[in-house]
Amino acid sequence: MFKDIASYHHDLLKGQTSCDDAVTYFLNRINQQQHLNAFVEVYSEEALLRAKALDQKRIAGNQIGKLHGVVIAIKDVICYEGHKVTAASLILKDFESIYNASAVQFLLDEEAIIIGSCNCDEFAMGSSNENSVYGPTLNALDNTKVPGGSSGGSAVAVQADLCMVSLGSDTGGSVRQPADFCGIIGLKPTYGKISRHGLIAYASSFDQIGIFGKHINDVALVLEVIGKQDEFDSTMNADSTFIKVDQPENSEENKKYKIAVFNEVMHHQSLDKEIAASINITLNQLKSGGHEIVSFDFDLLEYIVPTYYVLTAAEASSNLSRYDGIRYGHRTHKEVTDLNDFYTKNRTEGFGKEVKKRIMLGNFVLSSGYYDAYYQKAQQVRKLLQDKTIEIFKTCDAIIMPTSPTTAFNIGEKKKDPIAMYLADIFTVFANLTGIPSIALPIYKHSNEMPFGIQLLTNQKDELALLQLSNILISSSNKVS
Ligand code: GLN
């Protein structure tokens, strides 16, 4: 039923559909697809009420907002006033947001309809959505496979046609990897492009809200709406003139791009051979379209996963120290002996295993004697990676690499092997370590029937080139298929 936002708006204005129809359709779909466990909560009644109010407003002849009636799901780490937000954790059970995340406020200001909150890994820590207190989300294409993580529910909500677009968060790949596993588009903008105000923090110097959709223009439109300066986030970097990919002044169809690839990535032992071969097909198509492909060495590749996990665990150990069960959140029913015992019991009961592991790891790498060996070393590697992007973007417009080394894996397959799970992030964490924007584009289907695509990265704040090149890649893949 839903094609894209532009045609939905066209149909609304012609009176061929209504916001009420759209919400009713998605609520029915959500109901039929409950086994996917994509939603933590569905705001059925209020979404219908809002749809009816928007219909009246439009029919009365008022101008419509940019996201008028667009049905959006949000990850359970994004605050929506008066609604529960739990980061899929027991420690935040029943916690209700007392304000809107700025991104949510911007969506509402443009008349979007928030339909529900989506399942995810606890505190966005994970690559499979298996670390949720609500249980795993299933990949809609094959229910024995993970949808990826940590924003697995938001990805499946779009994949399975349960909403039009959705928001996730991407600290190390949590939007792009599930998009890749589910065969949809996932965008992580430049660090600081979208306000983090009201996004539950995991690792603050990495976290970024991201967008899932099935069409580049839909993703670009949502970015236009939520990617704006916000006084509540002092780390913003959003001074954007925007980005209308479909506007004639920005259409650069004939522009020839210079695209970087990393030798070590394309030959990495973890990379599925079929994925490597398909990316090479894309590179060859680009070459025959007159674009230039430039190979770079990337000898830091082996260090990026450890660097990412040292730094994010360190930041998480600090960010998560606020959950003590005193003012809000889970509080133990057991007898306590003193304040310390109270904290310990609240946190031991409230956090899941993966979160506890990272808090301990983070405290370890920050502790005296280990700080220099781990935390500081990792910061130095981060700087080298940032220097690498500066070097590349001096001469190139973009980087292409796989999003994930494999297609969606089986539920349970990597749960017992944390190193294997962490290594699944090898190609996504680079964008977060360096702050550059990156997008996962669904292009291919593997012989195992699961989707995969390519990951495209551009320079800081260059979402325009990112989206334009995405358009080129998606339309040339449509021509092939
Ligand atoms: N899989 C990564 C992690 O567990 C990424 C998570 C994310 O981007 N939120 O840290």
Account of the 3D structure:
The protein is of the alpha/beta class. The chain has a domain at 5-248: Alpha-Beta Complex (Amidase signature (AS) enzymes). It is 40% helix and 12% strand. The chain contains 16 helices and 11 strands. The chain has helices at 5-13, 19-32, 44-59, 102-109, 152-159, 176-182, 216-226, 263-266, 273-288, 301-319, 339-350, 353-366, 371-395, 418-423, 429-434, 463-480; strands spanning 39-42, 71-75, 113-118, 165-169, 185-188, 209-213, 258-262, 292-296, 398-401, 438-445, 451-458. The chain has an 11-stranded mixed beta sheet, sandwiched between helices. The longest helix has 25 residues, at 371-395. The radius of gyration is 22 Å and the shape is globular. The chain starts with a helix and ends with a helix. The model has no long low-confidence stretch (mean pLDDT 95). Glutamine is lined by residues 124-127, 150, 169-174, 202, 312, 425. Glutamine (GLN) binds at residues 124-127, 150, 169-174, 202, 312, 425.
CATH homologous superfamily assignment of the domain at 5-248: Amidase signature (AS) domain
H and E order: HHEHEHEHEHEEHEHHEHHHHEHHEEH
Give a list of the ligands.
glutamine
> What value does the Rg take, in angstroms?
22 Å
Helicity level: 40-55%
CATH-scheme architecture of the domain at 5-248: Alpha-Beta Complex
Distance, first to last CA:
22 Å
So what's the overall shape?
globular
